[in-house]
Amino acid sequence: MPTCPVQGNADLYGLGIRIGLYIQMITVQLSGVLSASFRVEDHIGQGTIIFVASTVIILVRLINASISSATSADDDAALDAVEVFPVLTLLLVQTGVCRVSSRNRLAMLVWVAELVGLAALYNYFWWRGMDMLPRSCPDDKAFFFARVSIWGWYRSLNKALGVFAAIGVAFTVVSFCGSVIYELVRCVLYLVARQADNSSTSGSSVGANDGSRVKQKPSPAIGSIDLLANVGAIVYVEVSLRWNSITGVHSLDSPGQFMPLVIALGQFLSVFYSAAKQLLVMNANEDLAGEEEDDAAECHHAMFHAEQYPVAANRSGDRWQARLPDVSRTTTLCLALLLQLSRGFNLVTFGDSYTDEGRLRYMLKHGREPPPGLILSPSSQTASGGFNWPRVVAQRTGASSYNFAVSGAMCSNDLVPDRKLDATGAPFPSVSGYEMDAFEAAAAMGRIGRPQETVYALWIGTNDLGERGLLSGRQRPNATVEDVVDCMWGVINRLYDAGGRRFVIFNMIPLEKAPLYGGPGSKAAENRNKLRKYTSSVNALLGEDAPQLLRWRWSGATLSLLDVHSIVTDVIAKPSCYLDAPANSAIPFHNCEPPCFDSPGKLSSYLWYDSLHPSARIEEVFGQEFIKLLQQGNTKFGKTFQG
User: Fold this and answer.
1) Taking Cα atoms as reference points, which of 458, 434, 411 lies closest to residue 363?
2) Transmembrane ranges (predicted)?
3) Which end of the chain has fewer CB atoms < 10 Å from its terminal CB, N or C?
4) From CA 600, how far away is CA 590, in angstroms rounded?
């Protein structure tokens, strides 16, 4: 058969550009498999649609220039019809099987717009455009399981396929617009319902809807179809280029081909890195799980901290001693920790006495607030009788801790007006007031690291719900637990506006189980019932609000909920799994009736340090579960949501 040499456009579909497109197609498939197998987000599709968009823009300009004159605007050889159809088909297939997260509305909008544009261009080319483009050869061939002419029945077939593609794209556009309208209506109805529902109905609604938030994994059948479409498109393009003797596009001579090739290789390696990291973490968890003895299988913390981290801290009296566990038992976990925490991170914490490491004590001692930007030194003189959970996290991970919590704080002084701190004569420090102001001052002075390397943690609500707040009836008129939750979200919103993207919120412990509320009599029983409703409502609202707010307000953020309610409940149910013998989950270690006295035995044997505060041992458990949540995303006591 005679050959008709066509000088191809290497900057449009040269070897490097084609290989880059092929690598991206494979990478998208691998990323989809990875996101279906592990808890990682599939963001590769976003880069792919940008790559495709730039290629389509160049293709459209070259087609327009080729139709208008014999040469393009850049004095390159005009495009023949035989050059356009392989590239156009490749781009349409790649866009059609590209995975874009439905939660990223902007990326979805771009993807839908690309589908519409490519479908329109595809129909234009086969119905009219190919007749208007230059034609160097008497006949041009395409691959359709055999060598076929693109000017005969094959053109008619593509016209029909173009119509079907347009119909499919139209359905996609309608579905996308419908989903946007549905989400907007759902969001409005949700906000209206939040205002109308009381706290008890809010709590019951979460359990029914919780299952709807489970991420659906891609179907293996859909993945197989995508893979076949990709392979078919690659074969179609390469065979068509060879059969039509198109020259100048089978080498890497043109420097413009290297940028898309390098970008595609970077995405490919990024997916492999994510897969390796997830496998290391998974293997580490399996290794640790296999080490537990059969008689301790039901104890979540039977091996406790020393055997779960490369450097563990064991408390002996008032001294902390580092102990290295057996290397052979932790090699895989060490590798996982290096991948997860190799760069270190900053930990910024807000809250009350469950988190405070000495900020209230400073105010009581000096009669004033700490100077702006001052970061207090670590201290074990806390309401737990030892180090609180932020110090545990800092010791175990090497994180830099910046603690702004103040004992006795509420989320906002708007809940209980006119609260004063006698030592300073100022309003009692709250999270949304003093603590956030102190953080912003320290950040403005450069005392805290970059937001992208920082985890922001909030644990508040004990005083808001307890005897100083809702339980006593001291709140402002019409204040409810929803106001407490809304205040928490307001704090996260300020942190997000300040550049924060990684957040952890602690929910409420079962306050009704605290010795403070465990007295006899009908009044005590009534208080316990109220606290049970308060805490369950707050915890339910946190779980319901988190995915909604991330979707609509905090794009690109990650928020985890640490379920300390379940942790304390588990300690009460299985105290020997967490506490030293003889384990005591009922009586506090430090009692003030008065007079004040310490119970016999070690502090590490007690769940409660005093009538309201968990002991330092339980603070260790909180810190351990916090670290697990950061590393794994979803744990027995935590859940993570992506924005």
Assistant:
1) 434
2) 12-36, 48-71, 106-125, 161-185
3) N
4) 10
Tokens encoding 573: 């149910």
431 by Cβ neighbours in 10 Å (0-12 / 13-18 / 19+) ranks as: buried
User: Could you give the CA distance from residue 437 to residue 405 in angstroms, rounded to a whole number?
Assistant: 12
What gap in Å lies between CA 43 and CA 38, rounded to an integer?
14
Conformational region of residue 446, where left means phi above 0, alpha means psi within -120 to 50, and beta covers everything else: left
Diameter of the chain by CA atoms? 107
Evaluate the omega torsion of the peptide bond into residue 595 and state whether it is cis, within 30 degrees of 0. Answer: yes
Query: Is-contact 90 238, C-beta < 8 A?
Result: no
CA angle 141, 143, 144 (to 5 degrees): 120
Q: Which residues 6+ apart lie within 8 Å of 295 measured at CB? A: none
Query: 158-217: per-residue pLDDT in tens?
Result: 999 989 989 988 988 898 888 778 777 876 776 666 566 544 433 333 333 333 333 444
Report residue 450 as tokens. Answer: 């970059």
Per-residue model confidence as pLDDT tens digits over 391-433: 999 999 999 999 999 999 999 999 988 899 999 999 999 999 9
* Mean of pLDDT over the chain: 80
Q: What's the CA gap between 178 and 184, in Å, rounded?
A: 10
Going along the chain from its start, the domains and CATH numbers come out as: 6-172+220-280 (no CATH), 345-565+617-642 (3.40.50.1110)
For residues 353 and 407, the answer to whether their CB atoms sit within 8 Å is: yes
Alpha-helix runs per DSSP H in 563-615: 564-573
Q: Is the peptide bond before 2 cis (omega within 30 degrees of 0)?
A: no
* CA dist., res. 577 & res. 313, Å (int): 18
What is the pairing mode between strands 319-323 and 312-316? Answer: antiparallel
User: Is the CB of residue 296 less than 8 Å from the CB of residue 302?
Assistant: yes
- CA torsion sign, 238 to 242 to 247 to 251? positive
Q: How many CB atoms lie within 10 A of CB 497?
A: 9
- The residue count of the chain comes to 643
Per DSSP (E only), the strands in 535-623 are 558-562, 590-592, 596-598
69 residue type, one letter: S
Q: Are strands 246-247 and 312-316 parallel, antiparallel or unpaired?
A: unpaired
Long-range contacts of 212-215 (CB under 8 A, 24+ apart): 213/547
| Least confident stretch, 103-107, 125-129, 338-342 | 338-342
Which class for 515: exposed (0-12), middle (13-18), buried (19 or more C-beta within 10 A)?
Answer: middle
pLDDT in tens, 129-161: 888 888 777 778 888 888 888 888 989 999 999
400, two tokens? 């830099």
Q: Tell me how far apart the alpha carbons of residues 434 and 405 are, in angstroms, rounded to a whole number.
A: 10
